[in-house]
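Q: Focus on the shape:
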Amino acid sequence: VGFAELTGCRHRAPGQGESMERVVSGLEWVLEKISYWLAQIAVVSTLLLTAVVTYSVIMRFVFNSSQNWTDELASYSMLWLVFLGLTYTLSEGAHIRIDFFTVMLGRRAQHCLEVLVWAIGTLFGILLFLGCLSETRNFIRRGTYSTEGLDIPLSWPASAMVVGSALFTLAMLVRFFRLLLSGPSASQSQKREQHI
């Protein structure tokens, strides 16, 4: 099987890959549910970040009292916000896309390029996950604790990086397989949904 057959750049027989279609659809459903709830945690993290920074500013400039734990908690909140919101943002098509050149291509060429982009994105997700996992395992192995204020194991806040990057990578992989299975029409409908 060559790249053209794999990416749908050539015609595929009807009914080919029906079991894979069911697996991809099931994974999409599970990821949608999980990413929604993680996004809710990211919203709470945003509220926490806002409250902590506001408290820190008031304490520092009004009462002339610096609170060490606020900067640390604000950093963790930002970390949770980013990593727990990754998959939901991807599922909503809200990551930044530049399609200035791709709109000039034909439908089949757009699809082939879209498959290539999602393959590269999946590779990036794998590298991101491996880096986050390595860092978290390093925190656990060394027993690293935060230095200011909260004095908690750094593996606790870093676990959000592992969870978020793992789900992001899985979502990228699922979308990649969805494009492989659906052909050029899926790329077009996906782009229309993202522009709405």
Remarks:
- The first helix runs from residue 3 to 7.
- The CA atoms of residues 53 and 174 lie 37 Å apart.
- Confidence is low (pLDDT under 50) at residues 1-7.
